[in-house]
Amino acid sequence: MQDFKYYAPTEVVFGKDAEEHLVEMINKYGGKKVLVHYGGHSAERSGLLASVREKLNAAGIAFVELGGVKPNPRLTLVHEGIELCRKENVDFILAVGGGSVIDSSKAIGYGVKYDGDVWDIYARKYVPTDMLPVGVILTIPAAGSEMSDSSVITKEDGDLKIGYSNNICRPKFAIMNPVRTFTLPPYQTACGATDIMMHTMERYFGKVDDMTLIDNIAEALMRTVKDSVFHVLKNPEDYRNRACIMWASSLGHNDLTGDRSYADFATHQIEHELSAMFDVAHGAGLAAVWPSWARYVMDENVSRFARFAVNVMGVPNDFTDTKATAMAGVEAVEKFYRAIGMPTNIHELIGREITDDEIKELARKCSHDDGRTIGGFKKLDRHDMEEIYKMAR
């Protein structure tokens, strides 16, 4: 058992009536003037925004609104949110949506308290010690941002997508009503399930493999999501399985399934460049990349991949050939992705052949011009990144 730190301060209100606690939560965490931050028209069409407005008005809580968050949330909207919060003296941010909205809200929260450009924080030029508090009404289980210390923002100038982690950005509360996920399109549901599993897989294939209890929790979470997604794709109003997926979203990225300091997250870093360049769904990008990453790094610890194959993917254990069992596990993941409508290579992801020049540019950005390596299971340099992109093409 390795030494670790665990910090999960977010208060969770989960269930069919969870939204009834909104005012209580905002009052508890000191919100007097709220920015209601959201994405597109779905929150409006579903009636959720109307319900939020009604509750805030009835409680006498002042608020302003900013919509328009897109997948792979943009820095320009973050700048707009920062200026709005300063102008209106906002002291609390309510994110109504999924990971993109929550990440954008966190970035706005950082920026309001910082005199410079908030991008400095993501570029590692400034470490924030204060920010506006954030609360969440979750509508898209995927990113786990509702309980995590992470935020990922895309800077349009240069197609740069960078994540930043700091415990001060963990939301004060997260309101989770699985009913709000009934109307998610199948593709978005599948992308979300892929992202949830990947957050756990990135920890599972990390630097250490002697965390027996954590491994068992991680395996159970991955099996549950893998099974539940088929049920909700067949019946979108399957509350029990929607609830499993929604709670797994949080547990998969609040460090319960592994300390980030021991994790890998190379697949996430490689995918961030794909979604920045091609503006694809993050979960789909992960599905397109992971099998190639797995085959590239497998020899570092074949037994780990064999355990995953057997305990998560249900592959029979070939005790005479550990590598064959491990490879069968990767193939089972690809079969799973195809079954839920996810791509398993970049061509399927972007709808065309990726060029050699594009691959070189992806590897250049991912390596920060040879300024960093990524991964914990196996350290990957720029050459390694380029080879994985080629395998995934």
Automatic annotation (TrEMBL):
Claim: Transmembrane helix is one of the keywords in the record: no
Keyword field: Oxidoreductase
Domain Alcohol dehydrogenase iron-type/glycerol dehydrogenase GldA: 9-178
All residue ranges annotated as the Fe-containing alcohol dehydrogenase-like C-terminal domain in the record: 189-392
GO molecular function: alcohol dehydrogenase (NADP+) activity; butanol dehydrogenase (NAD+) activity; metal ion binding; methylglyoxal reductase (NADPH) (acetol producing) activity
Protein's UniProt keywords contain Lipid metabolism: no
Segments crossing the lipid bilayer: none
GO cellular component: cytosol
Family: Belongs to the iron-containing alcohol dehydrogenase family.
Protein name: Butanol dehydrogenase
